[in-house]
Amino acid sequence: MKLNEHEQAILAGNMGPARQRAMAQQIEIGRFFDAEDMVEVAQAHIMADTESLGEAGVRFLEDLADMPLDQCKVCIPTITDPRGADFNAYQRINHDPVYVELERRADQAFRALGILMTDTCINYQTMMPPVLGEHLAMGDTGVVIYSNSVQGARTNYEGGPSALAAALTGRTPRFGFHLDERRRGTACFDVTHQPATWTEWGALGGIVGRTMASYYEVPVINGIHGPAPTSDDLKHFGAALASYGSTALFHMVGVTPEAPDLQTVFDGSTPDPTKIGKADFEDFLAGYGAADDALDVVVFAAPQLSLLEMERCAYLLKDRQVHRDVAVLIATNPENKHASDRMGLTQTIEDAGAVVLEGVCFYQMHARELGEANNWTRLMTNSAKLTNIIGGYGYEPVLADMERCIDSAVAGRIV
Amino acid sequence: MGTVIQGHVGIGPSVSGEALVALDNFSARYDLDRIKGIFSRPSHKLHGESYVGKVLVLNAAKGGVATAWMLREMASRDMAPLALLLNYANPIIAQGAAFAEFPLVDRFETDITCAIQTGDQVYVDPATGAVTIDRDAT
Fold it and tell me: Quick one: closest CA in A to B105, which residue?
């Protein structure tokens, strides 16, 4: 790989062993993906919940944080994905204090590195939205696909160690979606049923995602008509597409910035489109139906809820009571939690018996152990992404829209 | 000499071990019970199988970004696979392999999930991208 003078100096160890190790790691990844050089990135976003880190990962962060500040402080603005425990609410959901303590250690190490603890996977809705053409090192697949597709920024999936390396060097290997040629469409989908709910937007992401063969496929969605999709619609669509497909970029004709029309987004002729109609949505949702009406927990998360989703939850729960045998968990980021507190939404939601969690996401906080501690097996959610993930944690997921999830939580059984 | 299958230059040290193969995908978060060391996703073709110490041979890296941390974490508890051979890696697997110094090779000249069978003894050399299958070895 070609390195400039600054990058060579980092690799030589002139800026300390942590940055040297980070650069060496990035070069290895660059070689793996045939990158020719590095690209400067404006921001890094680190996924590093303690379930993923474990003791080994937390110790790695603590060792890094013990270095002199000039050797370990991040050199670009660096923010965090949802964390592994809510320090204020963990006792309400029987979260094991052992994991909470691990989370405190990771939190302290991150702060010592100069990282901003945003604890969010919806930074694009609440922090500083990426800009067309901006090169970034984003963790969390949902953040990557939204930044690339809806905002036209340029980032690959940057797992925690990789985003941290970018934070220490200010660079990332230039391959994948940093390159113009990788951002062209590779497959075309004609949608004849307009998604009407966040669940249906997620279902559409799952339907397309299941057909994606590799990370480098770029699906192009055609046929979206009527009012433009909202940020929350595209959030659910992108998060599910990324989860089911390992997909980092989509184009939606007439909606996203690099797809004004089909001709622009494909090189040469447009491939034969795959039709997606109402029956495909019904089949997808039926795949996450339930054999009986038993219900243990309802989860709204993955991605964290926007302020508008919080308002919708509050509206649906107002003056109602969640059944005593069912738990309802709602995960958002600290900014939206504080706004929800200020606007009375949290009060309305919690008066109904639901729990608002802050700075976490359900599948990133030891979901298996939480299920065992609370006897949760049957899980209902409006998030297609969560249904894709949570089966591996021992849950039986059921996918339904927010209204039906809340009606079921109140009834104490799936309705 | 066994059969040699050429992939793209990979990451990590060379290793020899027994293969565990399926035409399915891989995500450490979505698919594994990392405490027990088994595939836990009910729909995965290797559901219930132990992956610890095996050369895992699968189709593509899927799912989220957590695998980047998890390979090293699993290795720290001696609960990791020995190596990973994929038709298509994604950046997360590569980043995790680089962080954990874990053997990873992908982009083979043929479908690697067809070329290798469960139980085969394989030698993985990420520096060259070559994988050698020795079916007669015990």
Answer: A32
